[in-house]
Each structure stands twice: as C-alpha cells, then as structure tokens.
Amino acid sequence: MKSEEILRLVDTIHRSKEIEKEIVFQGIEACLLSAVRRKHGESETDNVVIDRETGETIVLQNGEEIDAEELGRLAAMSGKQVLFQKIREAERDKIFEEYEGKIGQLVSGVIQRNEGPNLIVSLGRVEGFLPRSEQAPGERFRVGERIKALVKDVQKSTNRVKITLSRTAHELVSALFALEIPEVQENAIEIKKIAREAGYRTKIAVTTTDTNIDCVGACVGVRGSRIKNIVDELFGEKIDIVRWNESDEGLIIQALKPAEISTMDLVDDTMTATIYVKPDQQSLAIGKRGQNVRLASKLTGWELVIEPITDEELEQKRKGGAGEIEVDIEDEELGDETEATTELPVEQEAGDDSKAEPQDEAAGETEEPAGDDSEDDAQDDAEETGDGDEAAGETEEPAGDDSEDDAQDNAEETGDGDETAEVTEEPAGDDSEDDAQ
Predict the structure, then answer these.
(1) Residue 285: closest CA among 304, 265, 266
(2) Does the global pTM surpass 0.85?
(3) Distance (Å, whole) CA 390 – CA 275
(4) Each residue of 105-136: pLDDT tens digit?
C-alpha cells in the first residue's frame, strides 16, 4: 500500500467512524504486523512503523526491513481482519464513554423491532434496549414510532455496548419538564422532589426564588399547553404539580391536594402524621387504590394516616388539645393562592349565605317543636304588634282548629288579650257558637 493510500485510508476512517487518527494508524500497524508473522513466522524483533506525516511504512522482520508488497494477498486479508477488529473496539470504547456520561439523561429514538416483550430502540449509531420491566403499564409502542426514554445503565461486552433504557424512573418526568419548560431548564424553577407510580400518577413539588414567576402556573402553561405535552408523552399519566413548602405541615397540605385537610397530628419520633378530614373529603384524600395518600407520603417523607372527623369532633379536639403536635390549618401560611380554608364549615364553603349568617330568633325557633301553619301565623302577627309575651304563650299551647285561629286573630287585632286566652281554652264548637262568641 502506497503512502498516499495509507493517509487517505486513515482520513476516511477518521471521518466516517469518528475515530481518532492515532487509533487508525495503530490499527494499520497491527494489521501489517499480523501479516508479517503469518508469512514469515513470529519473532520478537518483528515491528511495523508508519510515519504519521508522510504515510511511509517501515516493516521489520527479524530486525531486517522488508518490502510490504511481499506479504502476499493471503497475509493481507488476515491483516485486514485485524484492522477491522481494532476499528470495532475503538468504536465500542467511544460509544461506551459517550453514553456512560448520559446515564440519567433523556434520549430520543425510534422503535426498531420487538424481541418478545422487550423493545430495541435505534439511537443513531447504536441501539438501546428497553425491557418490559422498564415500560410503564398501559404503554403500547409500534415499530417506527419515536419515543423518549431515560438512559438507565451502560455496559460494555466483548463486541458491543448494551444501553438499557427506562420509562418508569421518576427522573424521566424531571427530564421532560426541563425539555418542555424553559424556566426549569434555566434553573429559574427548581424541582424539589418527585413521587411517581409510573403509568398512573405523579406528584412533583416545585419552587422558585424569583417572585415574578408563578412556579406552578409556569409549569402548567397557557391553557395547560406545557403540561399537556408531558402528559401525552407519558400516555395520559396524571401529574399533580404542587408548591414546595419548607415546613412539614405546609408540604403535607400541598401534597394531599385536591383534598382539604381540617387538622393534623404530627409525631416526630416515628415521622407519622394523622390527617383529619371531613367525611366527604376522605375518599379524595386517599385516592384511587390509595394512590393519593401513598404518593403524598413519598413526597413528604411522612407516613400519612387519613382519619375522618366531624365538625363537632373537630371543635372538641381543638378545645381538648389532643395529639402530639396539633396543627391549626387556618394559621398555616402556604404562600400565594395556596392558603387552606378547610377549617370553615361545609355550609360556608358551599356559599350558603343564609346559613353563614344565622339570626338569634331563627336559632330559637329551630329548637322548638314544629307546629302547624296556624301557630306560625299567630307568632308572626304577635311579633308585628310587639306583644311578644302573648305570642310566646300562644306558641307553647297545642294547635287548635280553624275556628280557634280566627278567634285569636280577631282578639289580637282588638288588643283584648284576656278574651283571647278564654277563647283558646274553650273547645271548638259549631258555627252557631262561633257567631255567638
């Protein structure tokens, strides 16, 4: 092989395989040395040296220089295999170094083929291996479909590099957030913690030091445009974005959303928190198959126990001061738009103004047994005339028939309270008796 051909070969391999020229020169030298030993036998003084600048080749056999053209075709073919082997090893080492530095990073590829339940993904010059155990439940892929996955592990074997991919790791969610949300990529928004059950639901806590940025709103995007791309990539997996809180109590409140918490007891020694919620909030706090409370426990680091509590029990609990550490949710500062209001009665939350502003008289009436319509009319007339004592006396008496009501009304209009009392004590008669009275 002429000097110019050697230099041209080195440059071609360097460009096409992205292998350093020095490695290619060493491969050609090993190729020629193998050919020499195959033709003339092995000797410790055998050596091949190629000038890196001119491409001139010096072949030594038993210490004597020989012409490389004398090696013959068979020896050249044998040396060619050695060259290819050196190139493959160099490629393998380069790929290994490249993807070893990508562990935990997001890569994109195309589904190449199926190997049983496992998938082979083309990543360009190399193939990735996506086992079934690293695929989220409910995910179904087709050959030729482009997907994103996380590099989980890289191993170098004799003739290839095995790159294991994952779509179940929680780091996949943070990588997708960095891809879709510029504020996360620029570290203006920080992802503090992630709890995930792949294929079902993810809770992610975010925060920011920039007061001009709404960290939750920025992650959601206009009309949910940003989060929608992430959900679509995860095949509809639900994602809850919560605001990070430095206090354990505040973080627990955020993590259990959308459920509203009434109060909680914290036990620091066992890192256990008993969460009290209204009965209608219990199923929401626990979530489907316990997912909400399970993910909230992972996100906060506390073992959360959900217990129902009524308004009366809540009031007694606050008066009694039970619990290791009792947290008043109303006083807990949670930041913008996240202050809990679960301490309000259910009626006030629903916006029922009539119940939110009770009147003293109405409260008194609800304690008395309900009478018929005639009693209500008598009370109303008594209150209008200001004769409260007579009205109160009338409401305590049992209801009579219509004739008695007419007599009472006539008596109240004339202001003759004594005659009214006599009429109500007499039993009802027929129409002639009423006319006589």
Answers:
(1) 304
(2) no
(3) 52
(4) 999 999 999 998 999 999 988 999 999 999 99
How far is Cα 374 from Cα 405, in angstroms, rounded to an integer?
A: 6
Q: Is 290 helix (H, G, I), strand (E, B) or coil?
A: helix
The strands making up 238-243's β-sheet, listed across from edge to edge, are 189-197, 201-208, 238-243
With CA atoms as reference, report the closest residue to 172 among 208, 209, 130, 222: 130
Q: What is the DSSP string of 325-362?
A: SEEEGGG----TT----TTS-HHHHTT-HHHHS--HHH
Q: Is 306 helix (H, G, I), strand (E, B) or coil?
A: strand
Query: Can you read off the two tokens belonging to residue 389?
Result: 């004592």
Q: Coil, strand, or helix at residue 6?
A: helix
**pLDDT tens readout for residues 244-274:** 999 999 999 999 988 999 999 999 999 999 9
Q: Are 210 and 188 in contact (CB under 8 A)?
A: yes
- DSSP alpha helix (H) spans, 208-247: 215-220, 225-233
Please, which residues have CB within 8 angstroms of residue 307's CB and are 6 or more apart in sequence?
274, 275, 276, 277
122 neighbors 174 (Cβ within 8 angstroms): no
* Planar angle of CA 397, 399, 403, nearest 5 degrees: 120
What span, in angstroms and rounded, lies between the C-alpha atoms of 12 and 21? 10
Kindly state the helix (H) or strand (E) to which residue 307 belongs, with its residue range: strand 303-308
Q: Is 327 exposed, middle or buried (0-12, 13-18, 19+ CB in 10 A)?
A: buried
Strand order in the sheet with 57-61: 47-50, 57-61, 64-66
- CA-to-CA distance for 5 and 415, rounded, in angstroms? 131
Which residue segments constitute the domains of the chain, with CATH numbers given? Answer: 3-99 (3.30.1480.10), 101-169 (2.40.50.140), 246-357 (3.30.300.20), 373-436 (no CATH)
The model's pLDDT over 193-241, given as tens digits with 9 standing for 90+, comes to 999 999 999 999 999 989 899 999 999 999 999 999 999 999 999 999 9
